[in-house]
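Shape matters. As here.
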Amino acid sequence: MNPLLDFSGLPRFDALRAEHVAPAINQLIDENRALIAQLAASAASPDWDNFVAPLTDAGERLSRAWGMVGHMHGVMDVPEWREAYNQSLPAITAYYTDLGQNLELFKKFKAIRASGKFAALAPAQQRVIDNDIRDFRLSGAELADELKPRFKEIQEELAQLGAKFSENLLDATNAHAEWVEDESLLAGIPADAVHTARAAAERENRAGWKFTLHMPSYLPLMQYADKRDLRARMYRANATRASEFSGEAGHPEWDNGPLIQRILALRAEESRMLGYASFAELSLVPKMAESPQQVLDFLRDLGRRARPYAERDLAELREFAARELNLPQLEAWDIPYASEKLKEARYSFSDEEVKQYLPQPKVLAGLFRVIEALYGVTLRETQAPTWHEDVRFYSIERDGELVGQFYIDLYARETKRGGAWMDEARSRRRIAGGVQKPIAYLTCNFSAPVGDKPACFTHDEVLTLFHEAGHGLHHLLTRVDELAVAGIHGVEWDAVELPSQFMENFCWEWDVLCAMSGHVETGAALPRELFDRMLAAKNFQSGLQTLRQIEFALFDMRLHDDFDAQGGGSCLDLLAEVRREVAVLVPPPWNRFPNSFSHIFAGGYAAGYYSYKWAEVLSADAFEAFEEAARASTPYSVLDRRTGMRFLDEILAMGGARPALQSFKAFRGREPRVDALLRHSGMVEA
């Protein structure tokens, strides 16, 4: 049996091959189209059981199968999987476009909404109906028949452009290698990063050391390499990935510049067809924010608050670099290096020192301890087929009953796209035999172990792991039985980051971090005085970091709101304009940041990158409830079960079954406030 068509249990990664993709996806699409035709033609009065439920069942089978294909494309991007994904992408895009434009289905959803049956539905089911009616409108169901073919063409081309953008970025990232043969050039670089570079060279039977643009290799070099020329070369290679400069390496086909212009033009055309002034307006319809102007005002207000702190951060860095590092002119490739040196000088520790106390087994156990303490569940490793030997599989149980399961894929590989993410393998829903339990993928790109020692994580990597685990918990701990609003489904995009950013806060608590530490050589716990120095440095350059995020978010929103891709303007010109407004650090003119901004050109964050700051307000405010509970308890601990269960009940468990703001107010008892975020970021004067 084709493993993509086996929905009886866990994904069969041990049997899955690229050649299974086209037959399975084509079969499921054909079956679904036949069902849709039958439902559309049915004379029966539509209701949940005879219309919504069978449509949901068919859609779930296809989304699960295609989800496995998309997952393999992300974590095992070898030629055969890339070809299989791209071969089926047009068919899957055409199917979903046709589904969204099916006027007969749309009419039946509206008929259910207008009937007396609607009031008898559960609140979660009512929300599903309302969301579907909204989504049909956004998918072009109400377009005139003569416009629908063009709308379909746009969707198909956008899907292909997004996939190509991501592939170009991965290919350009993999293509660059910095080979070092003179050991003296490695001065300053941490030993484990040097060992990893040596192992990479040995795998290719070459002498010396191989550094790449993958973050576990790139970042330590930029932070610690004393050799300025080496940092400059790596910075330029990273900053010009997938741009017109790729032609210098003989790969002009990797240039994402033309793709960006085409993506923007198609998004603008799609928006006009649906009656919106811009793609930003269209994008915000299913989000919490009410208008592009509201988002711009929010970002600019936060930018004004952060700017004095950013200016102070930069002045301190420049003064230190000139005085201590003999760098009177601070260049872009000097910033990470000088920042790390300043942090070491001011707080007497380095990221590398902390990293030795955070080996992978202890960190994972610490993460699980937090989850178990807050939500009354038990996590244990179990066995399942996986796509790579490094992948681990775990179950979450409550009182002996299975709640959900998840895969963890922690380490960077050349065939794996960069970044970190959570995705779903299966969602919770009620089926004939009971409740289908959810399954998640948690994917990161950390440095793999070298030799016999376990991998060690920087504190930033621990934050990333907790962040993705927060997304995973949102998916796994839902108690909603309707798939379309269970877990992360149906949650407004600008609220999706609330549970993930919320989890990061625990990594700054002494009892949490100490319990997950153990020096890789001695096993000794993280010293309290080192933690105190980390805490003092927590908001080191937070002004600069905040302005950087605001710069990206403003660029994204303006790019999709008031930028004319057809008017001959350049998105680089717009980015320069945004930087003149908010940035205090401006990269070199040849920096091609947009060409690697996959969040908005190959992910789901177009006109939505502001969500990170928007949800940070919510997450900081939510965590403040745990701080309040800790201050009222002895000993002080934010791992308060009672508050954790309220967070579970009102936010995680509810998923998308009600508006996110309603869930937040149910947990906090009031509207969100920005105060906690400013305090956590050190942007409140004592």
Summary: The radius of gyration is 25 Å. The first strand starts at residue 177 and ends at 180.
